[in-house]
Design goal:
The protein is α+β, with helices and mostly antiparallel strands. It has two helices and twelve strands, in the order ββααββββββββββ. The strands form three sheets. Strands 3, 4, 5, 6, 8 and 9 form a six-stranded antiparallel β-sheet that branches. A four-stranded antiparallel β-sheet has the order 7-10-11-12, covered by helices on one side. The chain has a two-stranded antiparallel ribbon with strand order 1-2.
Length: 184
């Protein structure tokens, strides 16, 4: 290639020079594009945050309203719902009538359908001070203390949800007595 300028002769770029420039631009572009697999970590972190937020909200509603509130985790569907309790029945019947504070829809998060937060596997590890008939459901009493979900069940001893996605994992823990939620 030769480019002629008015009044002077200029030499064009050689094929080698053009290839070198394209190679440098390509290297810069690859370095500037984020690693797509690193998105797995962020998606898992968001999923753990969604679950921890739902548990914290259930506890705060029990404290705020003075009525038992809780959450139900469906490990097979990667789903968490915040619930209130119909305490007029024995065992208590869950009511799926608690609204999410942000969008005012029912507080029901399906991580399989979530646009940003995703998990492949959710594993529950729960233990109680006695026998619990429904470990998928946890209620908080008016003091914010977590109990087994049937209303007459025992006090929660340990509750961990291990979330896995893309070879990574996070653990959402609900601590007994205090009702504190942590994400590791």
């Amino acid at each position: 290639l030769q480019i002629r300028m008015k009044g002077s002769h200029s030499k064009g770029f050689s094929l080698l020079e053009l290839l070198l420039v394209l190679m440098v631009v390509g290297i810069v572009a690859v370095a500037a594009i984020p690693d797509l697999s690193s998105g797995d970590h962020h998606r898992l972190k968001l999923a753990a945050g969604e679950i921890a937020g739902a548990i914290r909200f259930a506890r705060s509603e029990a404290l705020r309203t003075g009525e038992p509130h809780g959450f139900q985790v469906q490990t097979t569907d990667a789903r968490i719902r915040v619930i209130s309790a119909d305490t007029g029945s024995n065992p208590w019947t869950p009511r799926y009538d608690v609204e999410h504070p942000g969008d005012h829809d029912f507080y029901d998060i399906e991580l399989a359908d979530h646009p940003y937060a995703t998990i492949q596997v959710i594993v529950r590890n729960a233990s109680f001070h006695g026998s619990c008939n429904d470990p998928d459901m946890i209620y908080f009493d008016t003091r914010g203390t977590p109990w087994c979900g049937d209303g007459s069940g025992p006090l929660l001893e340990q509750y961990d949800l291990t979330l896995s996605f893309g070879g990574q994992s996070r653990v959402v823990s609900l601590h007994s007595i205090t009702g504190r939620v942590t994400v590791q």
